[in-house]
Amino acid sequence: MATFHSKIQEVKTKADILQVAQFLNIKLDRANKGLCPFHREKTPSFSISPKKQIYKCFGCGEAGDSVALASKVLDVNSYEAAKQINDALHLGIDFGTKINRWAVTQYKQKVKAREEFEKWENETFILLCSYLHFLEDNDEHYEVEEIRYYLDEVFLYGSTEDKLNFWKHNRGVVKRASERFNK
User: Fold this and answer.
1) What backbone phi and psi angles, to 5 degrees, belong to 178?
2) N or C: where does the chain have the smaller number of CB atoms within 10 Å of the terminal CB?
3) Bridge partners, 48 (sequence order)
């Protein structure tokens, strides 16, 4: 009977890292570069070498092979990652069990939620910047400090938790800015 290690090695040998990245919903350009799935960034620093079958992020330093990539992204151990790659890419390696579809669905939902949050974050930041200029141009200084505070302390230097709290508790600010600015 094959050991855990031999099954993982067999997946590493048979799986193409670009297909693994596609399975994990990692978007890459033609040069196989993209935004790192392990940290927030605006400029792509994540790269995959199909020739060497490895990945490397030059921003956070994460590196490894296809199984390590799946393990880190899906937050599972190497054996479970190898099983999921095997099933998703139809490699035909007998692990005796099928892929945990719930884990993949949960991961894809997390990716979608992160993308939606980042879209909201960018749109809100742009709206508040524009609204601040609108207030300053129209000598409406009573809200200027509040908007500057949100831009600086929440959007420029705040954590994700700060932004989530803003979203939960300050929707009225965004609504007011949108209504007044977009007249």
Assistant:
1) -65, -45
2) N
3) 55
What Rg, from alpha-carbon coordinates, does the chain have? 22
How many angstroms separate the CA atoms of 20 and 9, rounded? 15
Q: How far apart are CA 49 and CA 134, in angstroms?
A: 48
Nearest to 50 by CA among 17, 6, 9: 17
- Tens digit of each residue's pLDDT (9 = 90 or more) over 80-112: 899 999 988 988 888 765 556 676 677 778 878
pLDDT digits (tens, 9 = 90+) for 9-58: 999 999 999 999 999 999 999 999 999 999 988 899 999 999 999 999 99
- Token digits of residue 104: 């993949």
Please answer whether residues 113 and 43 qualify as being in contact, where contact means their C-beta atoms are separated by less than 8 angstroms: no
Could you tell me the end-to-end alpha-carbon distance of the chain, in angstroms, rounded to an integer? 71
Can you read off the two tokens belonging to residue 55? Answer: 């990945």
Dist CA 66 CA 73 (whole Å)? 11
Classified as helix, coil or strand, 51 is: coil
Find where tokens 């199909």 sit: 50
* 3-state secondary structure at position 62: coil
